[in-house]
Amino acid sequence: MGSTSPPAEVPLVLIGREGRRRVVLAADVAALAAGLRPGMPVAKAQALVPGLAVQDADPAADAEALERLAVWALEYYAPIAAADPPDGLVIDASGAAHLHGGEAAMLADMIRRLGTSGITARAAIADSWGAAHALARHPLAHQIARPAIVIPAGESATAILELPVAALRLAPDMVGSLHRLGFERIADLASQPRAPLALRFGPELGRRLDQAMGRLAEPIDPVRPPELIAFRRIFAEPIGAPETLARYTGKLVIQLCAALEAKGLGARHLDLLFHRVDNRIEAIRIGTARPLRDVKRLTRLLRDRIETIDPGFGIEIMSLAAPAAEPLEAKQSLSPLAEAPEADVSGLIDTLANRLGAKRLYRCAAVASDVPERSVRRVAPSAPRTGLTWLDASWPRPSRLLPHPEPIETVALLPDHPPVSFIWRGIRRRVKRADGPERIFGEWWKRDAELSAVRDYFRVEDEAGERFWIFRAGNGEDAATGSHRWFLHGIFG
Amino acid sequence: MSSGRTRYAELQCTSHFSFLRGASSCEALFAQAASLGIEALAITDRNSLAGIVRAHEAAKASGVRLIVGCRLDLACGMSVLVYPMDRPAYGRLCRLLSLGKKRGGKARCRLDWSDLAAYGEGLVAILVPDEADDLCALRLRRLAEAFAGRAYLALTLRRRPNDAMRLFELANLAAQAGVAPIVTNDVLFHVPGRRILQDVVTCIRHGCTIDEAGFRRERHADRHLKPPEEMARLFERYPEALARTLEIAGRCCFSLDELAYQYPEEATMPGLTPQEALEKLTWEGAATRYPEGVPDKVAGILKHELRLIRTLQYAPYFLTVNSIVRFARSRDILCQGRGSAANSAVCYVLGITAIDPDRNDLLFERFVSEERREPPDIDVDFEHERREIVLQWVFETYGRDHAALCSTVIRYRAKGALRDVGKVLGLPEDLTRMLSRQIWGWSAEGVERKHASELNLNLGDRRLRLALDLARELIGTPRHLSQHPGGFVLTHDRLDELVPIEPAAMRDRQVIEWDKDDIDALRFMKVDCLALGMLSCLKRGLDLLALHKGIGLDLASIPAEDPATYAMIRKADTIGVFQIESRAQMAMLPRLKPRSFYDLVIEVAIVRPGPIQGDMVHPYLRRREGREPVEYPKPALEKVLGKTLGVPLFQEQAMRVAIECAGFTAGEADQLRRSMGTFKSTGGVSYFHDKLVQGMAANGYETAFAEKIFKQLEGFGSYGFPESHAASFALLAYASSWLKCHHPDVFCAALLNAQPMGFYAPAQIVGDARNHGVEIRPLCVNASRWDCTLERFAIGMEERFAVRLGLRMVRGLGNAEAAAIVAARAEQPFTSADDLWRRAGVPAAALVRLAEADAFLPSLKLARREALWAIKALRDEPLPLFAAASARETGTGLEIVEPLVTLKPMTAGGEVVLDYGHVGLTLRRHPVSFLREDLRRQRMLTCAEAMQSRDGRWLHAAGIVLLRQRPGTAKGVMFVTIEDETGIANLVIWPTLFEKQRRVLLSARMLAAYGRIQREGEVVHLVAHRLTDLSEALAGIDGRVSKGA
């Protein structure tokens, strides 16, 4: 959340949708203390706690962040670590703990480090993944005060007996039906014969129980840092001529595209780095409108930018990477006999976007609004069509709409008539023909000011045959509907 | 324009009966038209005449003439406004609409051009054009051919580009086709300010938010009523088209007043006139009712009533009701009549009611007055579960062209308005739900800002503010038509020439477009066939009585005037009894001390908002207790009010006072009653106020007395009870009290089987029965049937009955599954859960429900957990190998022999929680008893202790909330009944506390109240000063922390 996060003392909940209801998905310590619980409807939570901070949950980002934490643990603590979603990490500490001064010291260090980045953590070391998972999340009353629990080897199976069955990583409805039958603690289950349980709850219950007890092995699939598709070229002699750079760029692109093809991917971003002899790095980043692995086009996009590179005293290494790549399916094209294929302008879009900047490239689309300023919006160049247009013969709109309506001086008769003449930008024009009024109301749901606002638009033609779109603020009768001043808003081509 | 006033009639106006399209009521439209000086207004709703009666009434009130009309949207996309010129044309229009509705199905209408042409005779038609193109020209030509001389083309300003050109071209097209252009304004609302609400209803209709609505909003602007001068200014170029509006107004002079109505013909007795047939049936019936000979008094009454019926020609009506009731009797369906004509001797001897005129003094004349000549009104209540049989019989017998149900206009109430407006403005659903929980019942005032701020909602949020305001504006707007529960309109001629008929959502039913009030306004006759849960309950009770105890009774033969029953009623021991079981009624019983049937009639009528608001209750009680002299300023008054000690308690008395003392005609008195009901807020009442007070003064009454009478009458406006209804209800109250008094076991079983009904939940009904010494036996898979049953047992020589709870009490168990279980155990009882599952063939899920309801314990000795454990092992699809084997053995063996698993027994608290959760009641300890120690520590008294405390004592008490009532007595006092293991306590919540602790009050399942005891004779209240929500403690009694909220 960074700087937008609320102060720590303000209760915070994360919310999401459960069907048609908005419910609390997670609550922080302050919110829990105020009596809020996950699963509670948001409106109820807001009613209970004044000034509650509410933010939307983002599970995908959470998962990603957890993955990053796992990579961090991998680098810092042990060679085998993985995310244990939704809220934990699992680390195989065998043979790694001594590097950090023993198991307890390692956990303490881990909790301290996480604490400095604002993460409150609980940790447990036990004989099995299942037992450690249970102990870290469902501590007994006397363990709550200690954030780190270390269970000596061989004692895990007994250590977890008093924990609730929910600690076994079971589906919530299974936990519910176990509760209904009176199985509250793991001990209640552990003492029972296995077959009747398996008959009623399936193999999962026994498996989880065995995993926690250490009777069944459960390997950890360690995270791997994301694999980057990248190629580099080291030059014996520093190079610097643009043509040379362009040539090697082409070679790198060929290599990269081959690798992309092997994986069935297309690039959305390419980073081309130039390591100079003076240890500075110059970079080109290009983006594409859709996944692409066309050698020619990618090369051209990169070459177009080489002129921005300052080689200095020469470049030792060039490296090309595709940090963002997406699956690229080949599509069968229709026979040109049947139907003229639509021109593919994505190449043009890429070229323009990489030259001018993606943000400067847009297309205009119609919006279903009577208010002229709101009837247009900018959309991405490759955005799909909406089906709306302005081209309705009975509903003419000017080909140019001024960014802001410009006040004009008029001589006009209220309330139904267009002006006889008007002065715009210092030039007086006599109105020869006119049509109107077209009465447009403010969009009352947007702002209070538009509750009663009215504009009466007229199409007018002057003596020279020029046509303008002018309007009067207000309906000509009621002062509450507008100032009754006149404006010019558009010009017909 | 300069010569005199501009004249204009508006011919295209959509009311809010074009559901979710028009935004103004007929009343508002006509009032606005009157103030703008519009001479006549046509209501042209889409394919509908639903609002036309309202418009008719509004037109009369405002003085603006109504032109009956309709906008037909044809399947081909053509829209035509049509106006019948005379009665036959109106009949054709109705048939046309009925035809379209029949084709289109519920709430739709499908008509083609050919239909319009076929039914078009006598209709004036105006084409509503889109653009002046070829299509328009074609339609215009067709219209000119089919409606020669009666075809017009609408010229309407849209406030859109090319308006002037469009009108010009349209006028040209019209001229080419030889059709006259005519000005309309296509009105959707009465004043410009309604535009926003119109946008909102459009969005509701499209099911979108206002932000998504885009061009689905009405694109043509300025759809409000405009004064004739403005219309003339806007249509300067078309003065003839403007003047032509008056021409149409002149041509279409059909008025709803012309609808003459006739009764259906009863062909029960060939060769006899209806009157002769009725007389014959009456005397035959009298002979059966009084086997020892008809008493002279009754014979006299009968003769008198028959004479009256002859003069008023009501015989067919009585015959109709009689044949409906006879049919019900023939199918053994319990029914009882009520209403103005029902409490007559004729109805008693015909078996329509069970109120014996020999013992009671209800005068027919008072209900059917000769001079008023309004149609008689008999409502017949039937057992609610079997009423449909009667309805279908009526349709069959009278024919679908002659019988239909009234509709009910479903209007926005506060909650629905907020929900829909909230959706349109994009408020999250849980927010609007939260807000609407703050609304009490059917409140008309809507959600106010203070409610929102109480929920910590940010009123700075513009959308929220808008939603609250718009929702309040939307309240009262019709949303759609639904069917009336049982109001039949029966006619002699074709019904679909009187009013459009549409098929109802339920199969084989049809409804007319008008509701009960419309029917009343037009003085049509209707028979109400209503459903009454208490009749089902009584029927079940009487059946049980006959089956188990050998006592055969019906409503008329239940022993009358039984002292033991009245003694029970006086103690307010009336939980579950019809009508007199509510808190307010129970509080009144010890004061009123009923000793005879008529006392019950008064009891039923007196605890109503009408008498309470009119301040009639206390004077009546004082007079009854002899603490105030009964005085009649004039003898005329004694004649009217003698039976009720000089205090008007019934609606008829109120009207009678106006007639006898203030010189009202019967018709005026009736208008007075109506105007108080409907125009309470408008100025209509003051006219009657002056008339009444002056009239009484002229007759020699003091002004103060007259004012008092008026105030009392005003109370009736909102909700009064006619004596005839009160009498019918009192009879059911008496019958159910008698059953409860003498056969509490039968009563309990019957009441449980008739659930849901009344004020009390099964837990209280069962608790009450146990307090009366009835043994209640738990649910049992081997003993319970679907319904609760009686089980005979003997204590010594005495034969007693216990109530066995039925499987219907098990939450979530289907009737079919229960039936399969009962059928399967007929040969031999089940020996295990597995046996039951195998033999009954019901899915394991049904067994889980039974286990959760603890139905395996009594006979199979399987506690909840053990039963669930056993069921959990069952698979709905057994392994094929085992299935074959066990089918051979008629399945008593288990599939597998498995090691024994010991399950932890459940805590006592846990059992009770599950009892409540899955059966709705417990036969174990009361839930609150588990909290008693904690409550003691917090110095809370039990409910029984609290109710026995001395007057004025301050104390704490707590209990489960049984019911919350806020009677419509306008003072806003709320009654809450709480219950613990010792009994119930009655809380009184003053409005200040209600506002302060609204949330707790409306949501808590268990409450603690701190307050002062108020003793009023035998009635004890705890006047609450502070409330605490103990719901969490209650949820926690199962011995572990509950999950979530």
Features:
heterodimer, A: 493 residues, alpha+beta, six-stranded antiparallel barrel, 30% strand, B: 1045 residues, alpha/beta, seven-stranded mixed sheet, five-stranded mixed sheet, 47 helices, 23 strands, globular
Tell me about this structure.
The complex is a heterodimer of chains A (493) and B (1045). By secondary structure, chain A is an alpha+beta fold. Chain A has helices at residues 29-33, 42-48, 59-76, 103-116, 129-137, 156-159, 172-180, 186-190, 194-201, 203-213, 242-263, 295-306, 346-356, and strands spanning 12-18, 21-27, 53-56, 80-84, 88-92, 123-125, 148-150, 229-239, 265-276, 281-292, 315-327, 363-366, 376-379, 400-412, 419-424, 427-441, 454-462, 467-473, 486-492. Chain A has 13 helices and 19 strands. In chain A, the strands form six sheets. In chain A, strands 14-15-16-17-18-19 form a six-stranded antiparallel beta barrel. Chain A has a four-stranded antiparallel sheet with strand order 8-11-9-10, with helices on one face. In chain B, strand 17 and strand 18 form a beta hairpin. By secondary structure, chain B is α/β, with parallel strands linked by helices. The chains are: A alpha+beta (493), B alpha/beta (1045). At the A-B interface, helix 2, helix 9 and strand 16 of A face helix 6, helix 7, helix 8, helix 18 and helix 20 of B.
